[in-house]
Structures are given as C-alpha cells and as structure tokens.
Amino acid sequence: MEYQFSKDFLWGAACSGPQSEGSFPGDGKAEMEWDYWFQQAPELFYDGVGPAVTSDFYHKYKEYAGLMKEIGMNSYRTSIQWSRLIKDREGTINEAGVEFYNSVIDELLSRGIEPILCLHHFDLPMYWVEKGGFENRETAEAFAAYAAKCFELFGGRVKRWLTFNEPIVITEGGYLYKNHYPAVCDAKRAALVSYHLQLASSMAVKEFRKRGGKGQIGIVLNLTPTYCKEPENAEDRRSAETADLLFNKSFLDPSLKGEYPNALVELLKKEGICPEAQAEDLEVIRANTVDFLGVNYYHPRRVTRRSSPFTGPLMPEKYFEEYTYEGQKMNFSRGWEIYEPAVYEIAIQLRDNYGNIPWYLSENGMGVQNEEQFIGVDGIVEDDYRIEFIRDHLIWLHKAIVEGCNCFGYHLWAPFDCWSWKNAYKNRYGMIRVDRKDNCRLTVKKSGRWFRVTAEQGGFSL
Ligand code: BG6
C-alpha cells in the first residue's frame, strides 16, 4: 500500500523558545513565568532541572539547523520568547533578542527549512504576570502590540505565524490543575483567562491584517477527541459533549468561526463564571478568525457520566469522569493512550464542521523515559517505537487527505530532546538525542534517519 503525500507537504517538527533556547539570565532576556517559578520552587521540577539551559539552542542553533536539514525537515516551528524580545511593559526592545531571532530565521532559510513562528508558548513575561497575567485585559492588548512588533521585525521572511500554542493548557494548567504558574484552582479566573487569551489571539490577527501581513496567521490548538463509554446512554453522551465544549470548542469555535458555542456560554452562566464580555471585544473576535489551524494531537479523552456526586471547588470533572478500559493501547512510557484513528476523526470534523479550513498536524509525539536504554552498539538510539508511532498516525492522516481533508503537513514533537516544563527532561521526544551530561552533544536517532527517507520520498509504502 502506498502512502504518498503532496509535493508541498510540510515534513517537520516543532519545539518552543522556552523549551529549547536556555540562556537565562543572559543577553538582556527578561524573566518569564517559568524562570520565576523554578526559582521559587525548584523541588516541583523533575530532577530539579529548570529552564536556564534547556537544549542550549541559543548557542547551538546552527548545529541544530544543520541536523534538522540532515533528518529531512523542510519546516520547523518554534516560538519567539516575548521576554527575550521585549524587556519591560513599556515595550523596550532587546536588540540582542532581535539579532538572535534574525539569525535563527536566516539560518533556517539558508538551509531550505521554513521557519513557522508562534508568538506564545506558555511563557508570559513576569512584568505582565505581576499585572495579573491574562486575568487582566491589558495583557491582551500588550500581546497584540508585541505581535505587531514581531510582524514588523520578521514579517518579510516568515510566512506562517501562530498566535498561541494550546491556550486551553494555559488556562487549565495555571488555573485549574496547578501544572503551570500561578498554580491555583479557580474556575471563574480560568474562564476569564480563557476569554482574554482568545481576545489576545484575535487582536494579534487583526494587527497582522492591518499591516497587510504577507503570508498567513493561525493558532495552535491541542484537540482531544472525546469518546464516551456508552454511546447508547444519553447521560454518557452529554458528559462527552460537555468535555468537548470545555476543552476543544472553547477555542476552536471562536478562533475558526468567530463565536462561542451557545451551549458553552449557557454552561458558564449557569455556573456563575461567565466573563463579562464587552461588545467591541466580541466584534474583534468575530471579525478576526484565523487563516489556518495547527492541531496538536497526542491522545483522546475517554469519559463517562459521574458515578458519584461532585464535591469540592468547581472543575470540569463536575460533568464527567475519565475511564480506562482493558486492552487500551498505551504509550509504554508516558502513560498516554495511543489512538491513531483520532487524527482522522479530527480531520473529518474540520472538513465538515469548520469549512474545511487548511490545517496541519503541528504536534504529535512520543515521550519516552530513560531512552538511553535503547542506545545500540553504534551509539544510536534505536527508537523503532517512535517510527511506528509516526507512521501509524500518518496512515490515518493520509486516509483523511484522500477523503478531501485539507491537511498540509505533519510536525513531530520534537526535532530534538527538549525541556518539558515541570517534567524537565523526564520524557524524551526528539529525533535528535541531546546528551545533557556531555555538553548537550547531539546525535541523530534511528527515527531521524527514517524521517529523512520518508520526507525525501514524500511518503512510504507498506
Ligand atoms: C504539548 C506542548 O502539549 O505537549 C509542549 O505544546 C509539551 O510544550 C508537549 O512539551 C509534551 O508534553 P510533556 O508534558 O510530555 O512534556
């Protein structure tokens, strides 16, 4: 069977500024939330490793770009760190930051790798955290101004922009499940943050268009297709619909259709946590939908109706329980389910319910603990599990494209092993190994060699 993709298909991988660059403090970079949080509570971070060095991309970007080329990537998504580009609330530019991002863009382009830039990957500068972060509408305005600066500085060479990476994770991580700063559990604050994140994204899109931005602008959403245990049971179906509303549609609908689903607004009102939206903000959201979508897909969500009444502070779990079943295929290491058909189902949803918007799989990946155990005699990580993981997702993506879905690329998370927030270097995701004990020495894994052949041939046959 042949799995051939179009000639201009994006073969690449994604990472982010805060997870790869390191170099804080240094070269005028301001503090962002993870720099701060790590200093406050290093014990929360796996192995006590914070964001100061990460994969040392700041110094090694040329070597990384060379290896990205070697593994066949024709595109790379990373993010600009707001805190590296802009020093303070007054908008003072950090010239060293401008120089760094200029050099990275030029280096990638010189090697035929398209840079796709995201403007925010969980890394709010502390000078805005101090003002309430995205609970404060001013932060949304500041984000739009920062975005405008980026378009002005780099717009000539960057053709695809993304406003936010996984905004729902900022909300749930910081304001519900305590995985991100400020690590509180408050549904009302969470709803307000979500609203301002959407507003910030739409305002950035507006800036892009106002400036006649060449190219396209999108947003990256992590979509978790939601399946209920007993589809014949109405309550079970409702639990899945509610989880889908809260975790997927809350950004998908306003970003792509320009409006919130009525059912979501009603739910938030019923709970007394619906933010007070200004009419002109809703108009900005309505008028500034994205050109394309980045979909991060790792695992689905399996839910069922609650078996016992919900107690405690308001959480999405009031409306469902998650469940596992025997025979469920799990990542042997990260604890996430592997369910490839969901990629196809996402694609069909986007085709049928969201105007067949152009999109790409902007993250998909397999985190593995203690990956050194798979190093073979030649010193190469023999990550056949990752090859299988990528290939099996591509098979479903291919089926979707054959059926008319508008998917233009596949990006693995990540090109190289990188720092993962509180998990630090626990789970390795890259096609390039980063040996942190040996001055971040880089070696291509078996998956990198496979990816090169696949990208060169534009697909594979089985
Ligand atoms: C995505 C994020 O949700 O998942 C990345 O965009 C993150 O920033 C990746 O690193 C993998 O998750 P984790 O928790 O295994 O590092």
From TrEMBL:
InterPro entries: GH, Glyco_hydro_1. GO terms for cellular component: cytosol. GO terms for molecular function: beta-glucosidase activity. One of its GO terms (biological process) is carbohydrate catabolic process. PANTHER family: 6-PHOSPHO-BETA-GLUCOSIDASE GMUD (PTHR10353:SF139), GLYCOSYL HYDROLASE (PTHR10353). Belongs to the glycosyl hydrolase 1 family. This is 6-phospho-beta-glucosidase. It comes from Hungatella effluvii.
